Amino acid sequence: MLITGAELFVKALKAEQTDTLFAYPGGQAIDLFNALFGENDIDVILPRHEQGLVHAADGYARSTGKTGVCLVTSGPGATNLVTGIATANYDSVPLVCFTGQVPTGLIGNDAFQEVDIVGITRSICKYAVTVRKRGDLAAVIKKAFYIARTGKPGVVVVDLPKDVQREYGSDEYPKEIEIRGYKPNLSVHGGQLKKAIEALNHGKNPYSWWAEAWASAMRRMRCLSLQKQQAFPSSLPLWEKGQFPPPMTSTLEISEYTEVMRLIQPLVIVMFFFYRNKIQRPHNGQNRLLCHSCNDDSC
Protein backbone atom coordinates (compact mmCIF):
# COMPACT_ATOMS: atom_id res chain seq x y z
CA MET A 1 0.00 0.00 0.00
CA LEU A 2 1.29 3.46 -0.88
CA ILE A 3 1.11 6.21 1.72
CA THR A 4 2.72 9.63 2.08
CA GLY A 5 5.84 10.22 4.13
CA ALA A 6 3.75 12.13 6.66
CA GLU A 7 1.42 9.16 7.10
CA LEU A 8 4.41 6.87 7.52
CA PHE A 9 5.72 9.27 10.17
CA VAL A 10 2.54 8.78 12.20
CA LYS A 11 2.68 5.02 11.71
CA ALA A 12 6.29 4.99 12.92
CA LEU A 13 5.38 6.92 16.09
CA LYS A 14 2.71 4.34 16.88
CA ALA A 15 5.11 1.47 16.22
CA GLU A 16 7.60 3.05 18.65
CA GLN A 17 4.82 3.27 21.27
CA THR A 18 4.85 7.05 21.33
CA ASP A 19 1.71 8.20 23.14
CA THR A 20 2.72 11.84 23.70
CA LEU A 21 4.14 14.23 21.12
CA PHE A 22 5.35 17.73 21.96
CA ALA A 23 4.79 19.74 18.80
CA TYR A 24 4.52 23.30 17.46
CA PRO A 25 3.15 23.79 13.91
CA GLY A 26 4.78 25.63 11.05
CA GLY A 27 4.84 25.79 7.26
CA GLN A 28 7.41 23.07 6.62
CA ALA A 29 5.80 20.68 9.13
CA ILE A 30 2.13 21.28 8.29
CA ASP A 31 1.80 18.00 6.35
CA LEU A 32 2.92 16.09 9.42
CA PHE A 33 0.28 17.86 11.51
CA ASN A 34 -2.37 17.09 8.91
CA ALA A 35 -1.45 13.40 9.20
CA LEU A 36 -1.69 13.62 12.99
CA PHE A 37 -5.15 15.20 12.89
CA GLY A 38 -7.78 12.82 14.24
CA GLU A 39 -5.26 10.39 15.74
CA ASN A 40 -6.60 9.26 19.11
CA ASP A 41 -3.56 7.20 20.09
CA ILE A 42 -1.15 10.15 20.20
CA ASP A 43 -1.63 13.16 22.47
CA VAL A 44 -0.20 16.28 20.84
CA ILE A 45 0.97 18.81 23.43
CA LEU A 46 0.99 22.36 22.02
CA PRO A 47 3.37 24.70 23.91
CA ARG A 48 3.69 28.47 23.69
CA HIS A 49 7.25 28.28 22.37
CA GLU A 50 9.54 25.62 20.89
CA GLN A 51 12.08 25.97 23.69
CA GLY A 52 9.40 25.15 26.26
CA LEU A 53 8.41 22.23 24.05
CA VAL A 54 11.82 20.54 24.08
CA HIS A 55 12.29 21.06 27.83
CA ALA A 56 8.83 19.56 28.39
CA ALA A 57 9.77 16.53 26.29
CA ASP A 58 13.00 16.26 28.31
CA GLY A 59 11.07 16.26 31.59
CA TYR A 60 8.57 13.76 30.19
CA ALA A 61 11.38 11.36 29.28
CA ARG A 62 13.05 11.75 32.69
CA SER A 63 9.86 11.13 34.65
CA THR A 64 8.40 8.26 32.61
CA GLY A 65 11.50 6.45 31.35
CA LYS A 66 10.11 6.66 27.79
CA THR A 67 11.65 8.40 24.80
CA GLY A 68 10.60 12.02 24.50
CA VAL A 69 9.49 13.08 21.00
CA CYS A 70 9.42 16.63 19.57
CA LEU A 71 8.12 18.05 16.29
CA VAL A 72 8.79 21.60 15.04
CA THR A 73 9.07 23.45 11.75
CA SER A 74 12.21 24.60 9.96
CA GLY A 75 14.34 27.70 10.54
CA PRO A 76 13.58 29.46 13.84
CA GLY A 77 11.40 26.57 14.98
CA ALA A 78 14.35 24.20 14.73
CA THR A 79 16.95 26.56 16.20
CA ASN A 80 14.73 27.17 19.24
CA LEU A 81 15.39 23.54 20.22
CA VAL A 82 19.16 23.94 20.55
CA THR A 83 19.40 24.62 24.30
CA GLY A 84 16.98 21.80 25.13
CA ILE A 85 18.84 19.39 22.86
CA ALA A 86 22.14 20.15 24.58
CA THR A 87 20.58 19.84 28.04
CA ALA A 88 18.98 16.46 27.33
CA ASN A 89 22.01 15.07 25.54
CA TYR A 90 24.50 15.98 28.27
CA ASP A 91 22.15 14.51 30.88
CA SER A 92 21.77 11.32 28.81
CA VAL A 93 18.03 11.67 28.25
CA PRO A 94 16.53 9.76 25.28
CA LEU A 95 14.95 12.31 22.95
CA VAL A 96 14.02 12.24 19.25
CA CYS A 97 13.51 15.66 17.65
CA PHE A 98 11.82 15.89 14.25
CA THR A 99 12.26 19.15 12.35
CA GLY A 100 10.53 20.23 9.17
CA GLN A 101 12.76 21.35 6.31
CA VAL A 102 12.40 23.03 2.92
CA PRO A 103 12.18 20.69 -0.11
CA THR A 104 15.44 18.91 -0.92
CA GLY A 105 15.85 20.91 -4.13
CA LEU A 106 16.00 24.15 -2.13
CA ILE A 107 18.41 22.99 0.57
CA GLY A 108 21.58 25.07 0.37
CA ASN A 109 19.93 27.81 -1.72
CA ASP A 110 19.09 30.23 1.11
CA ALA A 111 15.37 29.44 0.89
CA PHE A 112 12.85 31.01 3.26
CA GLN A 113 13.38 29.70 6.82
CA GLU A 114 16.04 27.26 5.66
CA VAL A 115 18.57 26.42 8.37
CA ASP A 116 21.19 23.67 8.48
CA ILE A 117 19.86 22.24 11.75
CA VAL A 118 21.89 19.05 11.30
CA GLY A 119 25.10 21.07 11.15
CA ILE A 120 24.05 23.22 14.11
CA THR A 121 23.19 20.31 16.41
CA ARG A 122 25.73 17.69 15.32
CA SER A 123 28.15 18.54 18.14
CA ILE A 124 25.47 18.59 20.87
CA CYS A 125 23.45 15.48 20.04
CA LYS A 126 24.07 11.78 19.65
CA TYR A 127 23.09 11.64 15.97
CA ALA A 128 21.64 14.06 13.42
CA VAL A 129 20.45 13.29 9.88
CA THR A 130 18.46 14.75 6.99
CA VAL A 131 16.16 12.33 5.17
CA ARG A 132 16.74 12.98 1.46
CA LYS A 133 14.83 10.02 -0.03
CA ARG A 134 11.31 8.83 0.72
CA GLY A 135 12.50 5.24 0.57
CA ASP A 136 14.90 5.85 3.47
CA LEU A 137 12.32 7.42 5.78
CA ALA A 138 11.20 4.30 7.65
CA ALA A 139 14.73 3.06 8.29
CA VAL A 140 15.93 6.48 9.45
CA ILE A 141 13.11 6.87 11.98
CA LYS A 142 13.72 3.35 13.28
CA LYS A 143 17.43 4.13 13.65
CA ALA A 144 16.61 7.38 15.43
CA PHE A 145 14.63 5.70 18.19
CA TYR A 146 17.09 2.83 18.49
CA ILE A 147 20.10 5.13 18.83
CA ALA A 148 18.34 7.46 21.27
CA ARG A 149 17.36 4.63 23.62
CA THR A 150 20.33 2.28 23.59
CA GLY A 151 23.86 2.48 24.98
CA LYS A 152 24.31 5.88 26.59
CA PRO A 153 20.92 7.50 25.84
CA GLY A 154 20.90 10.82 24.08
CA VAL A 155 19.25 13.07 21.53
CA VAL A 156 18.70 12.26 17.86
CA VAL A 157 17.68 14.98 15.39
CA VAL A 158 15.80 13.96 12.23
CA ASP A 159 15.35 16.63 9.54
CA LEU A 160 12.35 16.00 7.25
CA PRO A 161 12.19 17.93 3.93
CA LYS A 162 8.72 18.87 2.75
CA ASP A 163 8.88 16.87 -0.49
CA VAL A 164 9.80 13.71 1.47
CA GLN A 165 6.75 14.28 3.68
CA ARG A 166 4.45 14.52 0.66
CA GLU A 167 5.91 11.80 -1.55
CA TYR A 168 4.12 8.46 -1.75
CA GLY A 169 5.93 5.23 -0.98
CA SER A 170 5.78 1.92 0.86
CA ASP A 171 3.91 1.71 4.16
CA GLU A 172 6.31 -0.87 5.61
CA TYR A 173 8.04 -0.02 8.87
CA PRO A 174 10.90 -2.29 10.08
CA LYS A 175 10.53 -4.16 13.36
CA GLU A 176 14.29 -4.31 13.93
CA ILE A 177 17.27 -2.40 12.64
CA GLU A 178 20.92 -3.30 12.17
CA ILE A 179 23.50 -0.52 12.22
CA ARG A 180 26.95 -1.68 11.19
CA GLY A 181 28.89 1.07 12.96
CA TYR A 182 26.81 1.17 16.14
CA LYS A 183 27.03 -1.77 18.54
CA PRO A 184 26.23 -0.56 22.07
CA ASN A 185 27.32 -2.70 24.99
CA LEU A 186 24.19 -3.57 26.97
CA SER A 187 25.84 -5.72 29.63
CA VAL A 188 27.35 -4.88 33.00
CA HIS A 189 31.10 -5.44 33.45
CA GLY A 190 31.43 -8.08 36.17
CA GLY A 191 34.99 -7.15 37.09
CA GLN A 192 34.10 -3.52 37.64
CA LEU A 193 31.13 -4.50 39.79
CA LYS A 194 33.36 -6.71 41.96
CA LYS A 195 35.79 -3.84 42.48
CA ALA A 196 32.99 -1.60 43.69
CA ILE A 197 31.65 -4.25 46.09
CA GLU A 198 35.14 -4.98 47.41
CA ALA A 199 35.75 -1.28 48.06
CA LEU A 200 32.48 -1.06 50.00
CA ASN A 201 33.17 -4.17 52.06
CA HIS A 202 36.69 -3.06 53.06
CA GLY A 203 35.92 0.58 53.77
CA LYS A 204 36.18 1.77 57.37
CA ASN A 205 33.38 4.28 57.15
CA PRO A 206 31.78 4.00 53.70
CA TYR A 207 29.79 6.96 52.49
CA SER A 208 27.89 7.31 49.21
CA TRP A 209 27.03 10.41 47.26
CA TRP A 210 24.41 9.98 44.56
CA ALA A 211 24.54 12.49 41.73
CA GLU A 212 22.91 12.74 38.29
CA ALA A 213 21.25 9.39 38.93
CA TRP A 214 17.70 10.09 37.94
CA ALA A 215 17.41 10.14 34.16
CA SER A 216 14.45 7.74 34.31
CA ALA A 217 11.82 6.55 36.74
CA MET A 218 12.95 2.93 36.31
CA ARG A 219 16.53 3.75 37.26
CA ARG A 220 15.35 5.77 40.25
CA MET A 221 13.50 2.73 41.62
CA ARG A 222 16.61 0.58 41.25
CA CYS A 223 18.76 3.14 43.03
CA LEU A 224 16.22 3.40 45.85
CA SER A 225 16.20 -0.38 46.24
CA LEU A 226 20.00 -0.45 46.45
CA GLN A 227 20.09 2.43 48.93
CA LYS A 228 17.70 0.58 51.26
CA GLN A 229 20.17 -2.33 51.41
CA GLN A 230 23.13 -0.14 52.32
CA ALA A 231 24.29 -0.01 55.93
CA PHE A 232 26.10 3.32 55.55
CA PRO A 233 24.99 6.93 55.17
CA SER A 234 24.58 8.76 51.90
CA SER A 235 23.53 12.14 50.59
CA LEU A 236 22.25 13.87 47.47
CA PRO A 237 23.22 17.18 45.90
CA LEU A 238 20.74 20.01 46.20
CA TRP A 239 19.20 19.52 42.76
CA GLU A 240 18.36 15.88 43.58
CA LYS A 241 16.54 16.76 46.81
CA GLY A 242 13.48 14.62 47.47
CA GLN A 243 14.56 11.60 45.41
CA PHE A 244 15.18 9.50 48.54
CA PRO A 245 13.01 9.55 51.68
CA PRO A 246 14.45 12.00 54.29
CA PRO A 247 15.53 9.34 56.85
CA MET A 248 17.79 7.71 54.25
CA THR A 249 19.80 10.71 53.11
CA SER A 250 20.71 14.27 53.80
CA THR A 251 20.83 16.97 51.14
CA LEU A 252 24.07 18.88 50.70
CA GLU A 253 23.96 22.58 50.03
CA ILE A 254 26.38 23.81 47.38
CA SER A 255 28.50 25.56 50.02
CA GLU A 256 28.85 22.32 51.98
CA TYR A 257 30.53 20.29 49.20
CA THR A 258 34.07 21.49 49.87
CA GLU A 259 33.78 21.04 53.63
CA VAL A 260 32.31 17.55 53.35
CA MET A 261 34.96 16.42 50.89
CA ARG A 262 37.68 17.73 53.24
CA LEU A 263 36.25 15.88 56.25
CA ILE A 264 35.85 12.51 54.56
CA GLN A 265 39.22 12.19 52.85
CA PRO A 266 40.13 9.08 54.92
CA LEU A 267 36.89 7.35 54.03
CA VAL A 268 35.96 5.23 51.09
CA ILE A 269 33.40 7.13 49.04
CA VAL A 270 31.34 5.50 46.35
CA MET A 271 29.95 8.08 43.96
CA PHE A 272 27.34 6.89 41.50
CA PHE A 273 27.33 8.89 38.25
CA PHE A 274 24.99 7.33 35.72
CA TYR A 275 27.01 7.97 32.57
CA ARG A 276 29.31 5.10 31.64
CA ASN A 277 30.42 1.69 32.85
CA LYS A 278 33.74 2.83 34.24
CA ILE A 279 35.61 2.78 37.53
CA GLN A 280 38.40 5.28 38.10
CA ARG A 281 40.88 5.70 40.92
CA PRO A 282 42.39 9.17 41.33
CA HIS A 283 46.18 9.38 41.35
CA ASN A 284 46.40 11.79 44.29
CA GLY A 285 46.61 9.05 46.91
CA GLN A 286 43.19 9.73 48.38
CA ASN A 287 41.07 6.75 49.22
CA ARG A 288 38.16 7.52 46.92
CA LEU A 289 36.42 5.46 44.28
CA LEU A 290 34.44 6.86 41.35
CA CYS A 291 31.88 4.36 40.15
CA HIS A 292 30.23 5.16 36.82
CA SER A 293 27.27 2.92 36.17
CA CYS A 294 25.57 2.18 32.87
CA ASN A 295 23.04 4.76 31.73
CA ASP A 296 20.86 2.29 29.89
CA ASP A 297 17.71 0.88 31.52
CA SER A 298 18.49 -2.54 30.04
CA CYS A 299 21.56 -2.86 32.30
Question: Could you explain how this protein is built, in words?
Answer:
With 299 residues, the chain is α/β, with parallel strands linked by helices. It folds into two domains: 2-170, Thiamin diphosphate (ThDP)-binding fold, Pyr/PP domains (Rossmann fold, 3-Layer(aba) Sandwich); 190-292, Rossmann fold (3-Layer(aba) Sandwich), CATH 3.40.50.1220. It is 34% helix and 21% strand. It contains eleven helices and 14 strands. The chain has helices spanning 5-15, 30-36, 50-64, 76-79, 82-90, 117-121, 137-149, 162-166, 190-202, 217-229, 257-263; strands spanning 2-4, 20-23, 43-45, 68-72, 95-101, 127-130, 155-161, 168-170, 207-211, 234-237, 249-252, 269-273, 278-280, 288-292. The strands form three sheets. The chain has a six-stranded parallel sheet, sandwiched between helices. A six-stranded mixed sheet has the order 11-10-9-12-14-13, with helices on one face. β13 (278-280) and β14 (288-292) form a beta hairpin. α1 packs across α2 (30-36), α1 runs parallel beside α7 (137-149) and α3 (50-64) runs parallel beside α5. The longest helix has 15 residues, at 50-64. The radius of gyration is 22 Å and the shape is elongated.
